[in-house]
Amino acid sequence: MALILIVEDDELLRDSVSDLLAQAGHRTLACADGLGAQQQLSTQAVDAVLLDLGLPGIDGMRLLRWIRERFESLPVLILTARDSIDHRVEGLMAGADDYLTKPFGNAELSARLQALLRRARLPAFEARGAEASTGAAASTSTPGLQFDTEQPRVWVRGQPILLTQREYELLGVLHAQINQVVSRDHVMLVWQTGGAEPIASNALEVYVHRLRRKLQGTGLSIRNIRGLGYMLELA
């Protein structure tokens, strides 16, 4: 059972989503604006956030950036009527883990939320393999790079870097073949095999961009190999 924060100014929709999640066995907190969400997040340890973008006062995009500054790995699912590709990319770039446009079906909302919660409780792909062989949750590492298998965090030359679950999984896929080219198709296949929801090709570019930005100055870099894929390198 998870504790989900619903941030939605439409009372009918807010109550409907809350009822849906309660039927699925989750507990919910609900608020109608960004300020209320900040207050809830400052006092409650929630497992995920369902976030509308068109909020009064502090808008959803600004709230999303506030969340990412303070709760780096907290899963956030955007629920919004803004359905253009530009809006989707903007939301993902700001730190959302998934994006669902209104109107949406209850089954799809439940499935996407469940996928986010499942991924948030799983270590990176290669770390899962290490645990399966050792029976332990010890960190998986390569010289200069260490994965935390308890939460989406890595250390690069001793410097901790907090990641979202998607970013952590992406880094895990690239790390499994460090200094080798990893095709886009391979990344997508491993993600889906690991239980992640399918994503569009352009969304993968967004996650790569976000991860690359967080790794700046660490000596760890992701190269685009035109026409082939990506290569993770540690200088």
UniProtKB/TrEMBL annotation:
Keyword Transcription: yes
Pfam family, one: Trans_reg_C
Keywords of this entry: DNA-binding, Phosphoprotein, Transcription, Transcription regulation
GO cellular component: cytosol; protein-DNA complex
DNA-binding region, residues: 137-234
Natural source organism: Hylemonella gracilis str. Niagara R
Source domain of life: Bacteria
GO molecular function: phosphorelay response regulator activity; transcription cis-regulatory region binding
A GO biological process held by the record: regulation of DNA-templated transcription
Domain OmpR/PhoB-type residues, every copy: 137-234
Modification sites for 4-aspartylphosphate: 52
Domain named Response regulatory: residues: 3-117
Name listed for the protein in its UniProt record: Transcriptional regulator
